[in-house]
Automatic annotation (TrEMBL):
Source species: Hydrogenophaga defluvii
Protein name: Multicopper oxidase family protein
Biased composition, class Low complexity, residue ranges: 434-449
Highest taxon above the source species: Bacteria
Coiled-coil intervals: none
InterPro entries per record: Cu-oxidase-like_N, Cu-oxidase_C, Cu-oxidase_fam, Cu_oxidase_Cu_BS, Cupredoxin, TAT_signal
SUPFAM superfamilies linked: Cupredoxins (SSF49503)
Location of region: Disordered: 408-463
The keyword Oxidoreductase is assigned to this record: yes
Keyword Signal on entry: yes
Residues covered by the Plastocyanin-like domain: 89-196, 222-337
Cellular compartment(s): Periplasm
Length: 463
């Protein structure tokens, strides 16, 4: 892709950039833009081992990728293109979003503490934009708040941001121009700054994952998010992917694992990992002192926050990892279904079907049936809860994936090892002896309660 049609004055002239150009950016360095690298796949790309510059252990962006850069006289140069993109949220559903370099989120920017970083931002959106480098120490004019720190980047223009990555940690980037629309449309990305030398609060890890929490409101059958929604989102996603579209985190038994999470939704997300205890080793402000840490299995990531979770993966298996808000582990369709548990539809279905032939009872015994039911959905719509496991439907959607811990996973191998084979005698099993006394006599409902009918087997033949 060529950007040679962009006029030079787009990045050399204008009041907003006079100070930068004079202070530190040579005209020669800007004579040629780095070629933007465009991604078309939503698969998890292999970590980008630093081809030049100082070495570090690279991160894996879940269902994402790392932005390649070029070194130019000691400066790391990146090129981000803000543009409309098509993002597969899970197999069977493609959303029309806005993002960077072909995807939403944009590529992860990965640098080392002390690196001088120059980012060219080309605006191919239908309206102006900016990029704010969330959490960074930088000169005020590089902070990216449109109108406050700079002029917004007009349509078709390229602006340059340049600053030193001053502190190691976990960061994000997103527009600070028409934010409500641009973030609802998926414009965001991750940023990781590695420490330049051993840091007393930053451990060596064998696996380092990152992803953003985001959310969309896309009507079943549609593909463009509704941008005015504030709370009632129907697609809760990690890196603009919903389960079963979110890749598993595949690690080797005994690995020290770091998971970096950033929250760009408008609500909090308690992130929960099964089978292990983790510590929060980093926050928005950088690494936490070891004395301030405590073990937990769920940590809340509030709006606008970044968290680094760390643990030793010392339990083999396929461990669920998800947001603990149960509405965030389902896809569209489920949120507006009326609660029918315990409601007796006997005698009602047939008259209703006479009036509305498509009428179907859902949820009378709970909604687990929906994981198996081959309901007819509008095109381009994800089932509410889905995903097939080795033992049946997983009955999840949204912010859910698995942590796969394997003895035989090779160091650095990020491929999916398949499903875990539980060793004999280590899996829940059906009791086939005489029922214990307590289970045989369920307590009768007290007269004071509403008369709900206990669901029994074989009395629901109305589908
Ligand atoms: Cu959540």
């Amino acid at each position: 892709m060529s950007n040679s049609h962009l006029p030079r004055r787009a990045f050399l002239g204008g009041a907003a950039f006079t100070a930068v150009a004079a202070a530190s950016v040579s005209r020669v360095a800007l004579a040629a833009l780095p070629e933007p690298v465009i991604q078309t796949s939503a698969a998890t790309a292999a970590p980008l081992a630093p081809p030049n510059g100082r070495p570090y252990h690279p991160v894996v962006t879940l269902n994402g990728w790392t932005c390649p850069w070029r070194m130019n006289n000691g400066v790391k140069e990146f090129h981000l293109v803000a543009e409309p993109v098509e993002r597969e949220m899970a197999p069977g559903m493609v959303a029309r979003l806005w993002g960077y370099n072909g995807q939403s989120p944009g590529p992860t920017i990965e640098v080392v503490e002390g690196d001088r970083v120059r980012i060219f931002v080309t605006n191919k959106l239908p309206e102006h934009t900016t990029i704010h480098w969330h959490g960074q120490r930088l000169p005020n004019g590089m902070d990216g708040v449109g109108g406050l720190n700079q002029k917004q980047i007009p349509v078709g223009k390229t602006y340059v941001y340049e600053f030193e990555a001053r502190r190691p940690g976990t960061f994000m980037y997103h527009p600070h121009a028409d934010e409500m629309v641009q973030m609802a449309m998926g414009m965001m990305g991750f940023w990781v700054t590695h420490p330049k030398t051993r840091h007393p609060h930053i451990a060596d890890v064998q696996r380092d994952f990152c992803f953003l929490l985001n959310a969309f409101d896309i009507e079943p059958g549609a593909s463009v998010p509704k941008i005015n929604t504030m709370l009632d989102f129907n697609l809760w996603t990690w890196n603009s992917r919903a389960f079963p579209g979110i890749d598993s985190l595949n690690v080797r038994l005994g690995d020290r694992v770091r998971v970096r999470v950033g929250n760009l939704t408008m609500t909090n997300h308690p992130i929960h990992i099964h089978g292990h205890e983790f510590e929060v080793t980093g926050t928005d402000g950088g690494p936490t002192p070891p004395g301030s840490r405590w073990p937990e299995v769920t940590t809340d990531v509030a709006v606008g926050q970044m968290r680094q979770l760390e643990f030793v993966a010392d339990e083999e298996g396929d461990w669920a990892m998800h947001c603990h808000k149960s509405h965030h582990t389902m896809n569209a369709m489920g949120h507006d279904v009326p609660t029918l548990i315990g409601v007796n539809h006997q005698g009602l279905v047939r008259p209703l079907q006479r009036a509305a032939p498509d009428y179907m009872v859902m949820g009378e015994r709970g909604m687990a049936d929906m994981g198996e039911m081959q309901m007819e959905l509008p095109d381009n719509t994800l089932p509410m809860m889905t995903g097939q496991g080795p033992y049946g439907p997983i009955e999840m959607g949204g912010m859910f994936t698995t942590l796969k811990v394997r003895r035989e996973q090779k160091p650095g191998d990020h491929s999916d090892p398949g499903w875990f084979q539980q060793p004999p005698g280590t899996q829940a099993f059906e009791w086939t002896g005489a029922p214990p006394a307590a289970a045989a006599a369920p307590q009768a409902p007290t007269p004071a309660t509403v008369n709900v009918r206990k669901p029994g087997a074989g009395d629901h033949k109305h589908h």
